[in-house]
Amino acid sequence: MKKRMLSLVLAGVMTAAMLTGCGGSAGTDAGSTDGAAQESSDAAGETEAAEETPGEEAASDETAAEDGAAGDSAGGTFKIGGIGPLTGSYAVYGIAAMNGSQIAVDEINAAGGINGMTVELNFQDDETDSEKSVNAYNALKDWGVQVIDGCVTSACSIAVSAKTVEDNIFQLTPSGSAVECVANPNAFRVCFSDPNQGVASAQYIGEHGLATKVAVIYDSSDVYSSGIYEKFVAEAESQPFEIVTAGAFTADNKTDFSVQLQQAKDAGADLVFLPIYYNEAAMILKQASDMSFDVKFFGCDGLDGILGVKNFDASLTEGVMLLTPFAADATDDLTVKFVTTYKEKFNETPNQFAADGYDAIYTIKAAAEKAGITADMSNEEICAAMQTAMTEITVDGLTGEGITWDASGEPTKEPKAVVIKDGVYTAM
Amino acid sequence: MSFVAHLINGISLGSVYALIALGYTMVYGIAKMLNFAHGDVIMIGGYVVFVTASGLGINPLAAIIVSMAACTVLGVTIERVAYRPLRGASPLAVLITAIGVSYLLQNVALLVFGSDTKAFSNVVTLQNLELFDGQLIIKSVTIVTVIVSIIIMVGLTFFVKKTKIGRAMTAVSEDQGAAQLMGINVNGTIAVTFAIGSSLAAVAGVLLCSAYPSLTPYTGSMPGIKAFVAAVFGGIGSIPGAFIGGILLGVIENLSKAYISSQLADAIVFSILIIVLLVKPTGLLGKKALEKV
Amino acid sequence: MDMEMKVNKSKLSKTTKNDLITYGMVILTYIVVQLLVSTGHVSSLIQGLLVPFCTYVIVAVALNLTVGILGELSLGHAGFMCVGAFASAVFSLAFKDAMPSGLRFFLALLIGAAAAALVGFLVGIPVLRLRGDYLAIVTLAFGEIIKNIINVLYLGVDSRGVHFSMKDAISLHLEEDGVMLIKGAQGVTGTPNDSNFTVGVILILVTLFIVLNFIHSRTGRAVMSIRDNRIAAESVGINVTKYKLIAFTVSASLAGVAGVLYAHNLSTLNALPKNFGYNMSIMILVFVVLGGIGNIRGSIIAAVLLTLLPEVLRGLSDYRMLIYSIVLIAMMIFNWSPNAVFLRKRLRQKFLPGRKVEKEEA
What is the pTM of this model? Predict the structure, then answer.
């Protein structure tokens, strides 16, 4: 009896949730991070419309897109959907990309939008879970998304790109670096691919004679890190240094690196290659200094942000070299402006993900302008036009100058090698 | 020499597990519930010290006391709001509520402190111990953690065995109903248990973050689960068992990382746990429960 | 004699009726949803969630067999799901172009279920000797071991045969024409998308059929007698280990089926702490406990409800997971707190006095 009652209660709640679910999906505008006041009234109107004929919007994306456009009086709205982890242990990357994208959107809107259209950004949480990222993508579809800015992480990006290619929605991942992220013709990326970085790092170390014995510490449970590691090892064979130890760690085991460091020390390594993110790298630097292991460190773009770790003893980073497309301390106008705005708004120093997010929006803008996207185009038309336009544009962004793309979706840009001197990045 | 270094690093890691496991085993032993939120109370403890010491510039020792007080209040509040209404319900229901509390604490921390990593400044500012011309270095925080764990272990054992509240705790853990009939305030006793467990969590949080100085809203969850394994390893409910289990777990983890595979370290640790439990089903120092027919 | 027969008969028909309601609920939901989808009344978000609903319903029902019927707490069911998912994904990827998708998915299902059953059986032999919390922690440990091993597994196939490594992709030494099937932490990429809502619902019905029949079978009664009183069951000659193992293996294999459905719904599959770690095992347990331990229908409803909840809360952006956790705590207290149970009883007495009497008679 009790169980039956429970079932009834649960069923009741579920029905209620289902109903809100249908309404709520259209109402996700509330989650839109766009600050423009004009949008909120627009969003409210749309929700109403959607509630009256919920089917119409869900039935086809084109209708949804047109619905959205019809509500706006000027050049219409251009709806960009972002996907990335906003909660969970990778939240730091998703939030940075979201914030970076938001700054770009605000700037673009203040300057008159894209082809007269107001840009609207709706960034959804995927908790770094492929399944949730597809859910996030579907939620964005209900919202009437026209272009996807995501996902922030590789696996999610691959999962979502399998869906965007079916739906013919253009996808640009700011930071999904695995090779497969851009396997589909509609998918492009802003960041370097993993193999690219591994090869570049090995060549740089070899050509500049930085070391003869190299130890690698990498995260085998992370696609980014193991991807770079594999190519680094392959390229190292033709370089004048040998890899003496390769210490892997996993996501469940990323606080204690004493073993990997001890092994590197015992093997007499004179350089430690860290194809990992800065959180773990900060820990490694600290532990190496604790065990008086005085060695050179070399990293990739994941290491960028290490100077921004609050309260971190920056003297430990002295002499760390990294290959990164973005440096928050760079003195060019674009970077200075971005970093200042970011600090003002979010009270943090932007990392490479924020820069990737920022560049992603400007890349979308450049491609959309090239392709002459207008608010009344369907997603198929937008996707086809953007795909062609991507190979024709050149973008000067935070993460590189004169970035171009080919049809494979890979960007062409030069990694910059920097060394940390007196707490700031210095070109090498 | 490198073996000794790996061993010492293992003890260093294990001492942190031991410290967390003491809190776990305390709450489990008395309240008979797996407090999955313990790891997250540790994280909150770390943040309190971070904010007071690094942010407001208070003396680190005073900051630890503030943090202990904050965690005590937090622990008692959690017990009052989330766990007490479920007293007498299925232990599974309490377990799941604890998981809800764990999610809640993580997400509150995410909203309040943000997702970015905070570097925690080591509160132990003593000199590291260098042996054999610097070939072997023992971090001062390791020494402090081991000593603190031993003090807490001895203190808790004494407290539970010799004081009136401690004996009330033992009575509650044996049989809540009978304890109540003997005039023991069961709710009060369990609240005290949570207060002690949570203040220990604050200490553990400070030392965890001092040894591994990165603080995020998820800092507590993995050490929490490892410490729980350590507590089971040593015999859950047994105070010396938690200490021994923690140290052993740390040593096994580091040695298997060093000599077998750094990627499979967790699998090896868990396999050893399984083997120990199969040979000795109540853990190393666990009491054998009498089976009533 | 006559009286007894009558009681028996009415009892039997009651359980049958109860089962039929469960089946009916699933089928009716399916028809309603299909109607709504075809008339375009379902948002993309909900459409995308239909297969995950089925996945979690199956795994929740599977776990309920272990927790509710066998009476043992397992915190490792995500591990069995993981085995089923990976075994079937590797098969489907390897034979992607070799056979029609229907046959391939059917075989993938069998392989996933068999692999999970095998692992469940092997895990069950040592685990089921333990009791209570110790059993729970050992299942948790096994789940983590499975996830850890899969994360370091590299499997590739080329003209020289199948290669396998537990170190890194380089040590496979694949030929040029080689295909990577499992790439360590990157998992399996490019699994064909064979899952859909209809298949999911059919699998739910099959799962229900297996579990409900199991409960009412001779074996099921033996298992429940062990749950209620192990010593009494042993004393009447029931082979405790055998029956425990049967129930545990069936439960693991059904979790494997859920894994197959999961793997063929996404084009990437990786064993993260998030989807196959202890967190997921605990989430599945939450479905079971919230829906009522031993109550199959409750598990179904709770699984759907709790999968839906965080998605419905998307509009709240930053506060989404915060509210989710608060709702979880509130629901647990409302459903399980002795005070709340008492309150509900009194309310029921007040408004439905007749029905309470009926319950007492039964």
Answer: 0.84
